[in-house]
Amino acid sequence: MNQDIKELIQEYQLDKPNRKREFTYKRYFLMAVADSRGNMTKTAIGEMFNRDHSSVIHGIKQHKFWWKIRDMEYLRGIHPLEQTLDIESERVSKKYIYDCHCN
Fold it and tell me: The whole model's pTM is what?
């Protein structure tokens, strides 16, 4: 079920110790997607990203905050990921994760 997330982690090298925004935004977004699917613990999500559970909690909180205020830099940073994830068939609320169509 999380194979798509694992592939994106590898493609964007999100499991490496890189704190640049372009990587951080994508990492936090994918952490929120994995958490919203409900089949993994925070520790298991962290292991996918080579992070601990507290980093996952922080990342999910940051995603929710940036999403709530509709931070355009964040939305542009995560935009390529929305087209690669298949959440149509899942119980995940698209509104919770994303509903932007920014360029």
Answer: 0.82
